[in-house]
Structure formats: C-alpha cells, structure tokens
Amino acid sequence: MAQIKVPVVRNILQANERLAAENRKRFDNAGIFVLNLMSSPGAGKTSLLEKTIEGLAGRIGIAVIEGDLQSSYDAERIQSKGVQAVQINTDGGCHLDGNMIQIALDSLDLSAVDLLIIENVGNLVCPAEFNLGEHDKIMILSVAEGDDKPLKYPLMFQICSVLLVNKIDLLPYTDCDMNKIRERARQLNANQKVFEISCRTGEGFAPWLSWIEEKVRGHKKLQAGKI
Ligand code: MG
Ligand code: ZN
After folding, report:
1. How many domains does the structure of the chain reveal?
2. 166 C-alpha vs ligand 1 centroid, how far in Å?
C-alpha cells in the first residue's frame, strides 16, 4: 500500500509548490509580508490575531485569511476588529493549500495591506507540509496542551521560525514545564524565536508585536530595493 501512496502524495506536494511560488510572487509584487499561522485546535490562533490587530492598529495595514472546516465564525471575529478577512471553508479538509489561498486572494483588496496573516486549519500535522507562499511559518502552542508536543509533532516545530507559547496565565494550574518546551523546541530548531504570551491578559505581547513590525519593515525595504 505504501508504495502506491507515496508517489501520489509527492505529486500533490509538487503541484502545491508551484502554486505557492505564484502566491509568493504576488505577495512580493504587492509588498506584503505574509505569515502562515498554525496550531492545534483551541491553542488560540484567532485570539492571537485579535490581540495582534489591536496592538498594531494604525501602524500596519492588516488582512486575514481564515481557514476552518466549517463556519465563518472566526472571519466575523476578525472583521469586527475593522480588518479585511476572508473565510475559507475546507469542508472537512485538514489543511490549507496554495490553490485555496489563490482563490481567497481574489476577494481581498491588497492595496493598503502590509501584512497578511493566514490562519491555517487547527492541526499540527499536514499544514506543516503545504507551503502557501508565506514568508514565515509561525505556530502557537498553549500550555494546556502540555510540554510533550515538540516530541510528538517535530516537523511543525522544525519549520516554524516563531513559537508563541500561549495561556501562560494558566501555568500554575498545569503540569506544563516551560523549560521543557523551550529545550525540546530548541533541539528541533535552534533559530526559532520563542514568545511567552497570554492572549487573555495581554502579557508578553510587546516583543511579539516588535518582531512583526521589524519583519514588515524589513520586507518592504527588501522589495523596494528590487524595483
Ligand atoms: Mg480560529
Ligand atoms: Zn491535511
């Protein structure tokens, strides 16, 4: 069985790479910095977006693509913050791919956008395999999920340049060991930036927002230099 399945998967991933490269070109031509945000369900992706949008209001033009199995609940949460958001419903599909992003882009006005954040489907497995054309992959892990996640989902931790550890206000009520998370993540990706945050209390947001601002500025400069 495995011999039959592997080439098919390879072909799907190769086709996706082509679409991701097209997306990337489109983002770069428009001077937009793009993040692919991943996590398991309930880690706090949409809450992170809400707090990040509030924190960057008036300084950076933001748009969001929301990926979910069903419903437009998350896109509505984002729109209520005054930001353009388009919802992709995967109808059971467990990850976003380059083609879905291409379609979603057609319903966004990118002219005043500096930063596009794509909230992937809640899943620590296959979203790691599908590039969307983003500049950085980032992930959010909540302390309620436990400190063993880097051991169980190593690829996700390897490919993400940022790890946001959320719900740190709950640390006293869990057996989660922050040092273990940091050490296990570091072994998988020594260059990963780690931010400890609470979307509920707002703790730890300042360095995260600075990281984004620096990235957006750096990307603009890089693209301006190419023209
Ligand atoms: Mg969400
Ligand atoms: Zn999937």
Report:
1. 1
2. 14
pTM confidence score:
0.95
Q: For residues 38 and 138, is the Cβ–Cβ distance under 8 A?
A: yes
User: Per-residue pLDDT tens for 17-72?
Assistant: 999 999 999 999 999 999 999 999 999 999 999 999 999 999 999 999 999 999 99
Q: Which domain holds residue 47?
A: 23-204
Instruction: Please tell me the distance between residue 224's alpha carbon and the centre of ligand 1 in angstroms.
Output: 33
Distance 38 CA to ligand 1 centre (A): 10
* Per-residue pLDDT tens digits for 168-200: 999 999 999 999 999 999 999 999 999 999 999
Question: How far is the C-alpha of 162 from the C-alpha of 139, rounded, in Å?
Answer: 6
Task: Classify each residue of 109-142 as buried b or exposed e, where b means 16 or more C-beta atoms within 10 Å of its C-beta.
Answer: ebeebbbbbbbbbbbbebbbebbbbbbbbbbbbb
The token pair at 201 is 């209390």
Asked if residue 212 is part of any domain, the answer here is no
- For the record, the structure tokens of 33 come out as 């910095």
Question: Closest ligand to 38 CA?
Answer: 1
C-beta atoms surrounding 196 within 10 Å: 19
